[in-house]
Amino acid sequence: MTDQNLDFSITLDGEKVAVRRGETIYEVAERHRKEIPTLCYDPRLEPFGACRLCIVELEGARNPVASCTTRAEAGMKITTRSARVEMHRRVLMEMVASENRDLDVPVESGYASQEMATLIDRYDARSGRFIGEKSGASRPDDPNPFILRDYENCISCYRCVRVCAEQEGDYAISIMNRGFETQITTEFGGHLKESACTFCGQCIQTCPTGALGDLKSLARKDIPGETESTRTICPYCGVGCSVDIQTRGDQIVGILPAMDGPANEGALCVKGQFAFDFVGHPDRLKDPLVRGEDGELHPTDWDTALDRAADGLRGAMDEHGRHAIYGVASGRAPHEAAYMMQRLIRAGLGTNQIDNCSRA
Predict the structure, then answer these.
(1) What is the dihedral of CA 143, 147, 152, 153, to 10 degrees?
(2) pLDDT tens, residue by residue, 137-150
(3) Rounded CA gap, 66 and 48, in Å?
(4) 115 located within any domain
């Protein structure tokens, strides 16, 4: 950060630090590597201040303030961690823990699914002293194959509702009622497929408790082996979304959007998030096939298959002309393969009749 970007300074945990005008206390603390806990915060969303875990002490203020919604002002003196603040955070975590059915959920649930459990352990908040009435009514009756709606583990942070509205613009889910009757729901309380949901999976990836989970990844949680993450590019269209493919051995167990992906910044469409079954499908071709004199397809080598395809294309052109050829490229192929496909059709065969099946 250069000097011209600095507007004023504040005192943060006894240290004078530079601040950009408009930054919140939380943003300043993050930039200066001060760890402040939160459950309702997602850097892609507008600050909400619901969980109150991010409270800090502000000199001159009667009570601690929420750092995510409080703008930094010149001369502020802030303490991010003190005995008083840590006591507040521990009690808040105990109260959150008391309301949920499960404190530990499978890591396969989603990108942020371990946030609550991590903070509960950090603050030793498994005391059970506030155990009582539970909130949230789950929807095991929802038949969609992608998103688990386990609202008995919901803490009403509203990150799912906000990412659906602010990032995706779908407004497929909302909040009804108050207090223990608070519920995440669709219009008229129906199933997701009957709503405006596009099954992008963003609600899954921002949920800090696993109340919303990735059903496809959860179905693979018992596959043995250590999970490895590989950064790559989604092959479904030309946007170039970055994804982290989760694998165990030679099997894909899930897809996570790359939150630092320059093209998508954590967003994916339904295909990029969930459509990976074709990779390990038993019907996927492993060898080229050519049709024999008996009319059946038979495995062969690549040279024979390519020669047969070239002969077929030349024969069609000789008999019907170059405009008898129409090329359709696969949306699952790498971008380089799509480029070579259009070069083959346009430069090699002399026609512009080329399309692809990438329809997000």
Answers:
(1) 170
(2) 999 999 999 999 99
(3) 10
(4) yes
